[in-house]
Amino acid sequence: MTFAQASALARIALGHVTREYPHKADHVMTGEADAYLPRRMHPIFFGSFDWHSCVHGYWLLARLRRLFPDLAEGTAIDALFADAFIPDKVEAERAYLDQPMSRGFERPYGWAWLLMLHSELVVAGGPHAATLRPLADAFADRWRSHLPLMTYPVRVGTHANTAFALVLADRYARVVGDADLRALMARRAGQWFGGDRAAQAWEPSGEDFLSPVLMEAMAMQRLLPANAFAAWFADFLPRLAEGEPASLLAPAQVSDRSDGRIAHLDGLNLSRAWAMRAIAQVIDGAAGRVLATAAADHLAVAIDQVAGDYMGEHWLASFALLAVTGVD
């Protein structure tokens, strides 16, 4: 990624993480006292159309600040973080989770992105990771408690996808040294996905921004030993070297980027590129080459579609950065 590209992504995120409206809330009201105003309920993550997009907008800024320390937008990022990551605001975000109807708030997508943000702040150094830690601890505890309750994984191509959350939470667990959480996730992933064979890849669905097949494979890559993953993956996509399933390797077409759900498909192309690039690095032979080529195809059609309409702009830049830099 060039400085110009990094700067463009930073400007996109700086333009929306403090934009309060329009706003889509994940909020349950039990009475008039629960009336919702974004900034009042969420003094840090009130922007970017919804809570989780605001969280990963901050993640994007944190990663760019670390990878490009001389970025022109660095001063603005520093000022934003100094205002946002203060104990009182973090405690207000954490206290929201104490509300009786908040058990399912942003589960698991927002949980995973908050852990991803915290891990980025830890790697970057500085004071913000320690300030945000109480909120990260709260979500890590929720994830740890929720995993044993999940009899079945969620395999959709949208926010509820279990494998995507495993990938981001694994990065957090590696960074903070939570071996017990990694072991629990590995055990659950093996129980859910270990017997999967010959994935049909009936995708994309019309509102996907994640590939159920590739997210599952990516979770297994991160949580299994390398030799075990290679054997599992060979059975999971046994005809990949022959270019099958073709539906998995062809970029999705996006008909209307002003429609927030159809615009998800730009995100699908970016998240597929991210997963394909990651897996191609550990798969030998023709299958790895097929994935690498398909990743380049997906990235080429989507990388210039991250700005233009707010329905995509408030979140797609984060997926572009994932596609280019990877989860770590």
Walk me through what this model shows.
This protein has 328 residues and is mostly helical. It has 2 domains: 1-105, no CATH class; 151-159 and 177-328. It is 59% helix and 0% strand. It is built from 16 helices and no strands. The chain has helices spanning 3-14, 38-41, 51-67, 74-84, 87-96, 109-124, 128-146, 162-176, 179-193, 212-223, 226-236, 246-249, 264-280, 285-302, 310-313, 316-325. The chain is globular, with a radius of gyration of 19 Å. The two termini are 15 Å apart.
| Structural class determined from secondary elements | mainly alpha
> What gap, in angstroms, lies between the N and C termini?
15 Å
Strand segment tally: 0
Reported for the largest beta sheet, the result is: none
Radius of gyration (Å): 19 Å
Helix content estimate: 55-70%
**Which percent range describes the beta-strand content?**
under 5%
Number of helices: 16
Tertiary shape: globular
Query: How many domains in all?
Result: 2
Low-confidence stretches: none
Order of helical and strand elements? HHHHHHHHHHHHHHHH
Calculate the mean pLDDT score and round it: 97
